[in-house]
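Input for the complex:
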Amino acid sequence: MTGAAIWGLVVSSLAVIVVRRRSTAIVLVGAQALGLGLYALTHEPSASPAPMVAGTILITKGLLLPALLLITTRRARKERLIVSEPNALARLAIAVSVALAIEQLIPRFGLLEAGVEHAAVGVLVLGILVAVVRRAVLFQALGFLIAENGVYLAGLSLPSGLPAFIELGLVFDLVVVVSVAAAFAAKIHERLGSGDSSLLEVLRD
Amino acid sequence: MTSALLIAVPAAPLLGALLIRAAVRTPVWADRLNIFSASVTAAVALAASALGVVQSGHGLGGSWYLLDRGGASFLAVIAAIGWLSAVVSPTYLAGSGRSFFTARRAREWYYTGFHLFWAALLALALVKNLGVAWLLVEATTGASALLVAFSGSTNALEAGWKYLVLTTFGLAVALLGILILFVGLSPHGGTLATLDWQSLAAHSAHLSDRTAVVSLILILVGLAAKIGLAPVHNWLPDAHSEAPPPVSALLSAALLPTVMLIAWRVALTLGATVSHHLARDLMLAFGLASLAIAVPFLWRRMAWKRLLAYSSLEHMGILALGVGFATPLAAIGVIVHVAGHGLAKSLAFYTALPLARHDPDSARRAPRGLSRQSPATAAAVGISLGALAGLPPSPLFFSELLILLGGVTAHETALVTIAAVLLALGFLGLAHALIETLAGDSHGRRWAVGRTVRLASRLTVAIALGLLALSAGAYLLVASHAGVAIMRGIA
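Predicted:
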């Protein structure tokens, strides 16, 4: 995989941490999956059907799930500024420093390209960090997709790819989980008049 | 024949879910179809479980399944708790108010989600492949998150959302671990079968130490988030306390132990190849941390279901210790503990139904003086909480003893001592809660013996008999060579 493509994935993940508009973030995450899918379909054609399966799944995912989330944002009222969130620069600083620290902790695990390994772990960690530093429930749902894109990136770098059953199962699970997350996002917006997850911090001991 | 029976185990609840979703138009028919589908499912699963228990050697293996003695025991527990929760559900739905869903569709959605969740759990106890197991664990999240938020209250939304987010990210970490494992084992297959339990046991010795360590840590930490082991347990108290009682029972008594079964298989298959007993140490650390965090909460007066949630954290800690000790005695303790905890905890959660009906404030504060208000409900509370505390002759007393003795035979005397002290403190905390709940001051009037009290009363008799039978069974298991057979099958 080219360095530009890898950097594209990492930078788009970082962008989701800083952008304000939900629709922009959804488009960025959809573009990640589409980019990975196109790479799988076009790069190094082999006798194995794995890249074809992975590419088709990723492109379907890159179109379907963002569309689902965009419908959810359309149904919810315009999102207000979420004041409980750290500002964009602070979010970026937290995300970059934590991601770099975790990168150092995880040793190389055997993919051919070291850059892909680092990027896969980095994108997965950034997906988790999106859910930590962003307060809007829809952004937290996008974190799932970014984290899974990190795993897909590593999977695409395997000589034989991931087993097709796992690829299909993954996308099925992801569709279910993101649909459930979208239902939650809509219900939370309906109940609280906002998608701010910090309003959901009542249960404590 | 065996293969058809095992396919029927997850297929029966799947079919039930589809039928309820597609064909049912009235609440009465939804209730009837739920009971019918649950009874068929439980019968098939218990038959399969019996087949697994009586077989010899490493278990019955097929194209997608592995039925060993340990897995068969878990299957029986999932079948029994699922059936009990399905039977209790119509009573819950009859008294439930507003919902996440529209009033007209709420019952259909509830039963559909419930049977899909149950199907994933049953399949999880049977699958022979780590990758497929991961997919099923993730599927349980998708199917159960909306059930947790079923009441639609703000608290339930918070609990459901927290459950969805934390467990999904935990599982993403586990998925990275599985991927690393797959990369390491690629020279020995590179297909889905590479992740079969038997393939992992056979080939994991060829993994580099670094690959084995990283993948093991990521997989166990990710699964711990789903089991609700401390310190990655934040979703557990909220989800268990806000979900409908039959769903709480299924979460605590079936979901958590079933994911623990997957962690157990991982620890035994990969743990043997990793230096310095990493798998064992990780499980022991999770176990001790869970006990240490749960015990102070067992001393606090809190709402009934929230107390039960912290009790779940304590019991998952005990199971993690049993898995970590990795001795035959501890393995028997784990199996008895899963069954005993399942029965006692489900009765305790079902008791929340009469409590919610007659004392709605019990959702937010600890109930008191139940023996004067409702002797039948007090009996249910007494038996369930007494059993969970480990009061003899509860099977949990014997299972905890077996797990601790397993630790002694593993030469972990210091750790066993700390765990024994924490268990004793937990016992005292729950005993205090039991006395206050039964005999504390109460100004409420005596409850009428309605539908929920009658149900709790019947369940108390049935589950008390089951708990006594299990205590007797624990003696027989110790006298046999079951521990070695269980461990051989799990690995």
